Amino acid sequence: MSLPPLSPEQLVKPRHFELRMSLIFGTLFISLGTHLPYFPLWLQAKGFHAEQIAVILAAPMFLRVVTTPLLTTLADRARDRANVYIALVAASLLLSMGYFLTPTYAMVLAVSLALTIVWTPHSPIADSLALSGVRRFGSNYASMRKWGSICYLCANVAGGFILAATGPQAVPVIIVLALGAALVAGLLAPRMGRPRKASPLSAAEIQHAAPSLFNAYFLYFTFGVGIITASHAFLYGFVSIYWKSIGISDSVVGLLWAWGVVSEVCMFLFFNRIFASVSVVKVMVIAGIGSIVRWIIFPLVWPLGLGIAGFFAVQSLHSVSVAMLLIGLQRMIAETVSEERTGAAQGIAYFFNGFFMAAVTLASGPLYDRLGVDGFLVMIPIAIVGLVLIGLAARSAPKRPVRGGDERSLVDEARHTVAGK
């Protein structure tokens, strides 16, 4: 079916399009770069125990798996996606102020659930606006999106130094200020009109195309990726709390998180030179093994006296266990899924990743309560299960790819799939 024609207004490139989108990406990722590493520290400072922290972190993950596709579909059908983006950022700003209320368990959980509904769609809608500019005007996606990664990294580092000076009570303040900046940038968002094709997370497209994706190779592969990704839940939920418990300062915690992001970006930059000729299954096996090695080493770093340098070394494995996993997923979709079903494939992969991550995050609280840092060892069998599924996928792989994928575009696609950033 042919795509609808662009209106005369949509053929005119908005002024300073790339600059305006760069501002959106930059401000969007400041709040995310603060929330992931430091929100668990704020929860702990407010007196919540590990199981409560796990529920507060995991419950929104279950919810957003359902709500995010619905809201991105709404954005696709709106007169302009920028208006939906602005409304969601404004709602996020207002709801985030709920963290200044008396921090009872019920209150924080309720605020977190409501906030995730309007906060999580920011990134896919911003991606949708940017990619419309890429298709219509030849804009460079990477040159815009890189400011998101840069600001995420800066938020990791700066957040650590701010917390070192003020304590964890600064976390909600930083998030509110960052969302305020995101709202200002959102008001400058270029107006692009309706998209010509549904966004990657469109629920309508998933429903239409998903049945044809229910083949053994695709399902084993996406299940495997989702489970290996979920083995990182213990890290995301409790590593900052663990580092603080052994006396590592907030500023160094920020640097450790930032180092993981730096190693991830380095893999994006050099993947083509190192792994361009490696099959997608082998790429995924390397990523899975990297995850297992990471979870084996992590509990040993401090007892063996390897110190902070040892944690920096382990964080370097983020380039393998996360970046290669994302790139491999995009390669699989490009090689085996026809273009008109790519959106559905991305949506199903998002669902599996989100669901399994939420489930393991929920279990991570009791694990940390009982095992402390040794909870990382429980992530090993989870990653092994993911590897087994990748092996089953290899046995049912199609003989020939549906279409060849340009490696550089696949790396760019994986780069903007990173959630979580």
From TrEMBL:
The superkingdom of the source organism is: Bacteria
Instruction: Spell out the subcellular localization from the entry.
Output: Cell inner membrane
Q: Where is the Major facilitator superfamily associated domain?
A: 21-370
Residue ranges of the TM segments: 21-41, 53-75, 82-101, 107-126, 147-164, 170-189, 217-239, 251-271, 283-302, 308-327, 348-368, 374-394
InterPro entries from the xrefs? HcaT-like, MFS_assoc_dom, MFS_trans_sf
Membrane in keyword set: yes
Q: Which residues form the signal peptide?
A: none
Give the keywords, sorted: Cell inner membrane, Cell membrane, Membrane, Transmembrane, Transmembrane helix, Transport
* Keyword DNA repair attached: no
- Give the record's membrane topology: Multi-pass membrane protein
Main location, first listed in the record? membrane
**Protein name per the record:** MFS transporter
- What lineage is this protein's organism placed in? Bacteria, Pseudomonadati, Pseudomonadota, Alphaproteobacteria, Hyphomicrobiales
